[in-house]
Design goal:
The protein is of the alpha+beta class. The chain has four helices and four strands. A four-stranded antiparallel sheet has the order 2-3-1-4. Strand 2 and strand 3 (73-78) form a beta hairpin. The chain starts with 22 loop residues before the first strand and ends in a 7-residue tail after the last strand.
Length: 120
């Protein structure tokens, strides 16, 4: 019988500390609740919403964007100066402006991210 595959190697930092290579970045975890009729309501605004999400990802404001498969809520991890600034990014989104999202819950979140090569 062969031993189980241990999976990919994990980087280790000083003295073998596996967490030494992580940076904890001040971020905000946002839950954007969908309207009950979101499946129908979102269609005319989806392309503009996706363009907005893409822009937040490209400029580094968003670390993660996505939605529950059942359209209960979107979940995002955003970099911002403070919670009101994180909320402001989403208040500009077509889903918020057109009632596809009905509530925005913004909470402080410490996201662990791998170091970016070539950046300090």
């Amino acid at each position: 019988m062969r031993p189980a595959d241990p999976g990919p190697a994990r980087p280790t930092g000083p003295a073998g500390d596996p967490g030494a290579d992580l940076r904890f970045t001040p971020t905000y975890l946002v839950t954007a609740t969908f309207a009950a009729d979101a499946a129908a309501r979102r269609e005319p605004h989806r392309a503009a919403h996706l363009a907005h999400m893409r822009a937040l990802l490209v400029d580094g404001t968003a670390l993660v964007v996505g939605a529950h498969a059942d359209l209960r809520a979107s979940v995002l991890v955003l970099r911002a100066a403070d919670a009101p600034a994180a909320r402001a990014h989403l208040e500009q989104d077509p889903y918020w402006r057109h009632g596809v999202w009905t509530a925005l819950d913004v909470v402080d979140y410490l996201a662990a991210t791998a170091p970016t090569i070539g950046r300090s």
